[in-house]
Amino acid sequence: EPEVTQTPSHQVTQMGQEVILRCVPISNHLYFYWYRQILGQKVEFLVSFYNNEISEKSEIFDDQFSVERPDGSNFTLKIRSTKLEDSAMYFCASSENPARGNQPQHFGDGTRLSIL
Amino acid sequence: DAKTTQPPSMDCAEGRAANLPCNHSTISGNEYVYWYRQIHSQGPQYIIHGLKNNETNEMASLIITEDRKSSTLILPHATLRDTAVYYCIVRVRSNDYKLSFGAGTTVTVRA
Asked: Scanning A75, B12, B52, B111, which has its CA 20 to 30 A from the CA of A29?
């Protein structure tokens, strides 16, 4: 069964450094998402992406965050200058066309980001 | 924010059916009910979804009340590997693609 893959599984970065989290969505999916989960807290939506542009973003997704689909297979989340509070699990998800109402999002197993 | 209410936790016995309730009293006619689960820090795993009819797949069954104000996820024969946090999520708007996760129900399957 096709799946969303994320790399790396664990990323350790010094505060203030840039980090790029990578995702390969399911191949025929058109909508891509990033979520995060701080340890012990709820899964939170960050951003959705369709047709090479952001379709929705949350308040968490401020100017230090950016997303890109650099080629036909990868979807990336960049954090420009990391802070301690960015430490979390970051999940990528993809779906076909949720506007049809019956297309679920499928998630990867996440990247654990640890900011020192 | 999620518009669902779930019990914080429940136990069930291995091999028995697990019935997970969810209230969504403010659901509107074009909103679907989705169920996901998260097994210990893995990514959320899609289980099933429905609009108004009952649904069944290889993982579970979804029973939606006639008034659509509540639903029940049924795991027919729970195994230890079904221990997870289960999330009932209503899509907030038809053009709002994000999933709003609540705290879910922590289900512990006991041998």
From this structure: B52
Chain B residues lying within 8 Å of A44, measured CB to CB: 101
Under an 8 A CB cutoff, do B41 and A44 touch?
no
B34-88: per-residue pLDDT in tens? Answer: 999 999 879 999 999 998 889 999 999 999 999 999 999 999 999 999 999 999 9
**Which of A44, A58, A110 is the closest to B43 by Cβ?**
A110
Q: How far apart are CA A31 and CA A81, in angstroms?
A: 26
The shortest C-alpha distance from B67 to chain A (Å) reads 19
* Structure confidence by residue, pLDDT tens digits, A38-76: 999 999 999 999 989 999 999 999 999 999 998 878 999
Note the residue count of chain A. Answer: 116
How far apart are alpha carbons A23 and B64 in whole angstroms? 34
Strand partners, A116: none
